[in-house]
Design a protein that fits this description.
The chain has 11 helices and 9 strands. The protein has 342 residues and is an alpha+beta fold. The N and C termini lie far apart (85 Å). Bound molecules: phenylalanine (PHE).
């Protein structure tokens, strides 16, 4: 009993002068005295050795000791958090820091929008390599050997191997899809394409396309028209007028280019529509039977349509950007103006 009293006195002295300077030390105090393996637990263990007639007194002593430890713990906690408040220099009422987050590139915004419209019609996304071979870019697409597009003037060829080239359109992706899949095929092919052009406000050596391909039984020109009409309405609104003009592409027959009424001048005539009131936005047509046969697709059973559009052109109409060079100059004063999907 005496030894218990002595031992508790030593602890009491220690507790009275106990000081802390941070939250970790408050926690260390708690663990030392009040923890599951702490001093109080340990002291309670002495009770069993105390003779019965002294148990009452010992119990009281221990209880007092426990209350003292708990009171000290509370005051340490409080004094510490009070001193923390004084030394805390953060003013939570100040406005926060503004972090600059990037914005999507305008071409990405428009490409995503185009792709999502066709995805809603059930088109899947297909992608392919930017370095292509002659067959996928030209041959399979029914471009004759002497077609001017193959000319060095228009196409970038790879020096080490001139049968390789930078794709001039994403029709090469359609070729790869027809090579690997059986009809029904319904894909949309977004991607960067390259042409050997002198860089100016109106032309660039690379630009972006979204091409589409739909092959199944009984696909008709009416399907082509309705699909593209739906696209235009979703992209430009219900009031936009559409017209198809006969055209020529080696890989489609018949072929048509689609114009929309000029959004800049509402058809009155301006620089963008060259005072015609109409702007061309895409090429299209029924897939040429030869192209289908190139991939072993029976052209008596299957028909299809294809179309291709330039993302920069759609962007120009939507955002009224007149100089193609702006898209690749990486000037953030230009780029950060396009934040919303329109
Ligand atoms: N490949 C054509 C181009 O790059 C676009 C196109 C695709 C036209 C499909 C008709 C059909 O200009």
């Amino acid at each position: 009993m005496n030894s218990l009293v002595q031992q508790l006195d030593i602890y009491k002295q220690e507790i009275i002068s106990y000081n802390v300077s941070n939250a970790d030390e408050v926690e260390a105090f708690r663990i030392k005295y009040l923890g599951t393996k702490g001093i109080i637990k340990h002291a309670m263990g002495f009770m069993k050795d105390v003779p019965n007639e002294q148990k009452r007194e010992a119990g009281q002593l221990l209880n007092e000791f426990k209350l003292m430890v708990e009171a000290k713990y509370e005051s340490l906690k409080e004094s510490f958090s009070a001193s923390e408040q004084i030394t805390n220099t953060i003013d939570f009422s100040l406005p926060g820091n503004i972090y600059n987050v990037g914005t999507r590139h305008p071409l990405s915004i428009i490409r995503n929008k185009i792709v999502s419209i066709f995805q809603r019609l059930g088109f899947a996304i297909a992608e392919g390599p930017e370095i292509e071979d002659d067959w996928h870019n030209f041959g399979a697409m029914n471009l004759p050997e002497d077609h001017p597009a193959r000319d060095m003037q228009d196409t970038f060829y790879v020096n080490q191997n001139p049968t390789w080239l930078l794709r001039t359109h994403t029709s090469s992706v359609q070729a790869r899809v027809m090579e690997n899949q059986k009809p029904p095929i319904r894909v949309i092919c977004p991607g960067r394409v390259y042409r050997n052009e002198t860089i100016s406000a109106r032309a660039h050596c690379f630009f972006h396309q979204v091409e589409g391909l739909y092959i199944d039984e009984n696909v008709s020109f009416a399907d082509l028209k309705q699909t593209l009409y739906f696209f235009v309405q979703e992209m430009f609104g219900k009031d936009v007028k559409v017209r198809f003009r006969p055209s020529y592409f080696p890989f489609t027959e018949p072929s048509a280019e689609m114009d929309i009424s000029c959004l800049i001048c509402n058809g009155d005539g301006c620089n963008v529509c060259k005072h015609t009131g109409w702007v061309e936005i895409l090429g299209s047509g029924m897939v040429h039977p030869k192209v289908l046969e190139n991939f072993g697709i029976d052209s008596n059973k299957y028909t299809g349509f294809a179309f291709g559009m330039g993302v920069e052109r759609i962007c120009q109409l939507k955002y009224r950007v007149n100089d193609l060079r702006l898209y690749s100059q990486n000037d953030i004063r230009f780029l950060k103006q396009f934040t919303s999907v329109i």
